[in-house]
Amino acid sequence: MPVDLGSPTREPHPNFYDNRRGAHGFGVKGHVNLTFHGPTLKASYVDLEGNALIEEEWQAVGGNVELAGQRVICHDADFHVGPEMVRVTLQNQIDESSTS
Amino acid sequence: MSQSGRLVHERRQLHDLKDLPRSAALSQLRQAAEATSPPNYPPEALFAPAALVTWVRTYLAYVFHKKHYFPEYTASPCAAMYALADERGGDGVRISIAGDWGTGTDEAQCVARQMVKFEPHFTIHIGDVYYVGDPPSVNENCLGIKNPNNNYDPVTWPVGSVGSFALNGNHEMHANGGGYFEVFLPGLGLRTPGGMTGQQTSFFCLQNHYWRMIAIDTGYNSIGVPILSGIPWINSIPGIGGDCELPAPLLKWLKEMVRPEEDPRGVILLSHHQNYSGFQDQYAKPAQQLWNAGLQRRVLWFWGHEHRLAGTT
C-alpha cells in the first residue's frame, strides 16, 4: 500500500517514525532485515533505495528481549526521532566493550 | 500511450491504491472497476455500469460463502515448528521481512529486489495482498503470473535460500482467504530439491537455541459481519466488527506445541495487525490471548497494517 504520512495523533507516541515524502507523493516504502547470531539480533530498516535508516541490536536475556542499542543513520528532518530514544550507536557500544 | 492518448502503465500505480478502504465491499469495488476497464482504469471507472455489475456479483459471492477453513497444526508435517537455521544448520541466520507488500506495483518489485540483495535465508510477508487477495490477485502480485483481468506485468515475491512464509491479512480475507490458503501458501515453506514444501498453516514458529519467532494469524477474524462491519458505530458492537481474535486452533497450537510459559528463549512476534498504534486503530485482543496462553514477558513485535515505519517501546 502507499505509505501513509502524518504525525502521531494518539498515545503511545513512537520513538521514531519515517515521515519522508517520496517522489510519487506518498511515504517511502521499505522492509526490515534481521541478522541472528547466537543471542544477538540485529535489525536494519531499509528504504526503497536501499538506504539503511536505523539499526537496532536486541539481546535474548532470560526469556526477555532487551534493546541493547540503536543507531540512527537517516538524518532527514522528516525522519523523526523521539527525545527518549537512546542515541548510542552500536559502534560506540562495541568500542566501549572492547576498551573495558 | 494507448490509442485514446492516455498513458498506459505496465503495472498498477501507487495512486490506484490511494485511500483504499479497509472494507471488503469497497475493496471489491476497486477490483471490479479495474477488471472492467483494462489496461489502466480511470477514477470514473468506479461508477461504470460494468464495474457495478461485476462488483455486485463478486461481492455477493464473497458475502454468501464461508471463510476458508482454518488449518490446524496437524496439517503441517512439522507441526508448524521450523528450525531457525541456515543451510548448514548454523544460527547465523538472515531474515528479510516486508508487510502490506502485495500491491503489484513497481515499488513492490523494487522492495523485492532490495530484499534479495540481503541474501536472506528466509523471507516473510506479514500480510495484505491487494485488492482482495483472491487467486488472480495472489498470482499477479506475489507469484509472477499475469492476471487475466488486467494488462499489468506481474510481480514475484522473493523466496529465501532456506524458505519463505506469509501471514494472513485483512485484504486476503476480503476474498474469504481462498487465494492465501490455496494459492500462496502451497508455494512457500522450505526449499527442497523437489521444490517448496508448502506452508500448511497461517501460523508458525521458527526457533533455535536462543530465539523463537512466533507468527500469528490476526487476519482471519479481522473482517466481522459483512456490510454491518463497514458502518461506523455499528461496527463497535461486539461481534459485528472484526477484533482479530486468534482462532481456537491457533490457541491449541500455542498450548500443545509452543508452550511459551515453559520456554526461556527470546520471543519475536509477527502479525499483520498492530497491537497498538500512535496513528490509527489498535487491536488488543490477540495480545490478551497470548498473555493468557502463557506469553507473559517482554517481546519484540513486528507488524504491518499501519502502512508506515514506526518504532515504539
Kindly describe this structure.
The complex is a heterodimer of chains A (100) and B (313). With 100 residues, chain A is mainly beta. Chain A has one domain. Chain A has one helix at residues 90-99; strands spanning 16-18, 30-37, 40-47, 52-61, 64-72, 79-81. In chain A, strand 4 and strand 5 form a beta hairpin. The N and C termini of chain A lie far apart (47 Å). In chain A, 30% of the residues are buried. Chain B has a five-stranded mixed sheet, with no helix packed on it. Helices cover 24% and strands 14% of the residues of chain B. Chain B folds into two domains: 14-63, no CATH class; 73-303, no CATH class. With 313 residues, chain B is an alpha/beta fold. Classes of the chains: A mainly beta (100), B alpha/beta (313). Chains A and B meet through strand 1, strand 2, strand 3, strand 4 and strand 5 of A and strand 2, helix 3, strand 9 and strand 11 of B.
List the helices and strands and how they pair.
The complex is a heterodimer of chains A (100) and B (313).
Chain A: E1 16-18, E2 30-37, E3 40-47, E4 52-61, E5 64-72, E6 79-81, H1 90-99
Antiparallel strand pairs in A: 1-6, 2-3, 3-4, 4-5
Chain B: H1 24-35, H2 49-63, E1 81-83, E2 93-98, H3 106-117, E3 122-125, H4 135-141, E4 163-166, H5 170-173, H6 178-184, E5 189-192, E6 195-196, E7 204-207, E8 211-215, H7 248-258, E9 266-271, H8 285-292, E10 300-303, E11 310-311
